[in-house]
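task queued by scheduler; priority normal; single chain, no ligands, no partner chains; default sampling; output format set to structure tokens
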Amino acid sequence: MPTLGSCVKDFAIPGLRILCNQATLYWMVMARRGNPPSLEELAQAGPIMQGMKECGRPLTRSEFPDLLGRKGSILPGTVLMFYFRGNIAHSCIAKDSRTLGGFNQVGWLAGGGPNIYSENNLTEIRWFGENQVQGFPESKLCQLWAINELGALQNLETLIAKNVNMAHA
């Protein structure tokens, strides 16, 4: 199977405007299964990514450089999630040690735009105080969480099954 970081690239689904959490889910499923998620699974991307919070941990500004390595890098395949008041607001994935790939990065990181793929440097994360990062719109301060590739992929199928089944209930 491919690595999560290697799956992070632009893609399109006819008739669907890709949201950040749908893109993150898409890449995770590609890394886990080797083929794309169903439209039914993509429709549950928000709740699935909300559930991923249990697999990760919050980051603080003071630990950020050490967590990422002395040279300011991050492990490829790390899933970064931005939570506003405990709810998932944005997600993206480390494509390599310094590059974050995601959809709808505008406002969260420099560049990007609505419903388009962009790659951004890790240094574009804007910290406010010890525990918060810039959200979008700019008045929204979020908590940043990280999930390593192994933890994200190991819990993926359980979270998909749980949320798709709940949608049918």
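post-processing summary
- DSSP finds six helices and eight strands in the chain.
- The chain has a mean pLDDT of 89.
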